[in-house]
Design goal:
Elements (H helix, E strand, L loop, with lengths): L4 E8 L7 H18 L6 E7 L2 E7 L8 E9 H4 E2 L2 E2 L1 H10 L6 E4 L2 E8 L4 H15 L6 E3 L4 E3 L3 E8 L2 E2 L3 E2 L2 E2 L3 E3 L7 E3 L5 H6 L7 H19 L7 H10 L3 E7 L9 H11 L3 E5 L2 E11 L7 H24 L23 H18 L4 H13 L7 H5 L6 H9 L4 H9 L10 H20 L13 H14 L6 H10 L6 H21 L4 H7 L6 H14 L4 H16 L15 H22 L3 H9 L2 H10 L7 H18 L9 H5 L1
Antiparallel strand pairs: 1-3, 1-11, 2-3, 4-8, 5-6, 7-8, 9-10, 11-12, 13-14, 15-16, 17-19, 18-19
Helix pairs in contact: 1-4, 6-7, 8-9, 10-11, 10-15, 11-14, 11-15, 13-14, 14-15, 15-16, 15-17, 15-18, 16-18, 16-20, 18-19, 19-20, 21-23, 21-24, 21-25, 22-23, 22-24
Length: 678
Amino acid sequence: MNDHKALLEVGIEELPSSEVQGMRKQLLERIEKSLESNRLGYGGIEIFVASRRFGVLIRDIESSQADFVEKRKGPSEKIAYRDGEPTKALLGFLRGSNSQLDEVSIEDGYVYVERHIRGKTARELLPQIFSDMLRSLDFKKPMRWGDGTYRFVRPVKWIVAMLDSEILDMELFGKRSSNKSRGHRFFFDEVEVSPENYFQNLRDALVIARESDREERTLSEIRRIESDINSQIPVDEELLAEVVSLTEYPTAVLGNFMEKYLSLPPEVIIVTIKHHQRTFPVYKEGKLTNGFVAFQDGPDDPLGNIRLGYEEVINARLEDAFFYFEKDKEKPIENYVDGLEGILFQRGLGTLKDKTDRTIALSEAISKKLGAKREELLEVKRTSLLAKADQTTRVVQEFPELQGIMGRIYAELSGENPDVCTGIEEHYRDNVVPATLAGAVTGISDRIDTLVGNFMIGNIPSASKDPYALRRKTSFIFKTMHHLGWKLDLLGLIEEASSALAGVNSETLDAITDFFSNRFEAFLLEKGFSMNIARSVKVWWRFPYLGVRAAEAISEYVKKEDFTDLLVAYQRVHNISRGHSSNFFDGSKFVEQAERDLLNNYLKCFDDVMEALERDDFEKSLLLLTSLKPHIDRYFDDVFVMAEQEDIRLNRLGFLKSLDQLFLKIGDLSLLLEEERA
């Protein structure tokens, strides 16, 4: 293995943390693909991304492509020669191939020429490989600069492109490549680098280019402060990733906010210092303190200016929160409900008060279908009434991340029922199944109303866009109904929600049901079921709990020997009745013993299957359907379904259609044919 190294570094203005993951993935995919297509071998690739630079280091890259023989196919022998002499077609092919007549060979009736092509050097190939890779990158929010000619994630400040100690001849975005990088922006200017010592060159200039090294330093700094002050600093992974992406030399700064703000709910303090100021809260013996750990980009802050800056901003934010919280507490949460009249929910869907009224009505309907007790019904209605009330409070308007959390806190301060308080917070969470009936019912009602309303006004998710997170809301509905074992008909709930919204026509309703059906398939796939099984039982989308039960039963049944018998029986019935629409038949007109025998077994099986499904016993239903196989086999052996006499033919097709529909009570088993082979 050779020891050549290639380096590309692109210096940019501050990179948004939201672009980091996508860039890292694209860089690796693009460079691997390009090196492979250019037949340039290598030992390893390292991608690095920091706030003011990103790039790639390629280790053990081959110095050149391998030489290769190109074999080109020309015209057929009949066209290439006439009376043993080369034709114009052959001569033209030879000119285009830069070949001579004596280099021609004939195989399988065609002429061929071979050319020995010398491989290009890495020095020749890499500038184009690097340039093409950079031009191909996609960004969430690209920028243009200068006269608008250049478009990239952020304006490019410098480019380093090297192979070993040699600078590659490359120009892009108006910048010519060199071996000059930049150190930390406050302490260093140009820094000469090389592929051999790149990371150490930059570290000496107070830049840690590797994300893993910056993460290690960040965690080390946190542990150092924990030890110094004998406290605990929980590491939030998202905040850690953000600090790592926003700094090139992270150094911890310990600060304190005023102790009076500890009277605020901990959630308010945490959202202020963590989400708004990107700092880590400090705990002592499990209790939140007035300490925080921020990170500066650079070495120590001996004068404490950075600490003072953080403290000033955080104290100001907490003072606002303190003032808003004290004002909000002056009246009970119910008094905030009327304010929802002044907040638009969505254009075309009324105000948040309109939405609240619709949610209350649907929640009441769901509760009654669930057989809720009087006390539970009152809790659900109260939760639905107060669910959005915190939207009108000052704290939530200042800190939208606290919606639901502040609703719960204000409800507790107002003396509301504990389940109502918890339900208010729970109904907001898309990723957690509510623990209270009030939270579950309100959460589902709220989301069904949002889904139906958005489809009504044309906000339908596309393959690439879902601005109102309707897929996530649908997943919450499926997850909650399945987890709680609710056997409610989702279609009925959608229709009830539609009746409360003027303008939901049959076409819109069809689009909604198609969306739910497809999302239920995705839900089943997320739960680990195979594609075939998910598709076969997505007809159960109206009853998510039962749909999962059906998928579980089929998943177990496919492992049994009886599964093949079930499929064969179903396939014979399904194939011949597939194009027949009616399930009407008259059993008294059956003349063959085999069809009377199958009818009798069908009638008994029908009752038994329906009884098993009433008990959610899908396993028993599958066994019962499988037991019909010998009777179905005999039927097709002895009975000619497609009889010339029309009334006999239609009667038999109607009967088989009924039998087909009995199988469909479990799912579309025709989609399981590939599952057998899988």
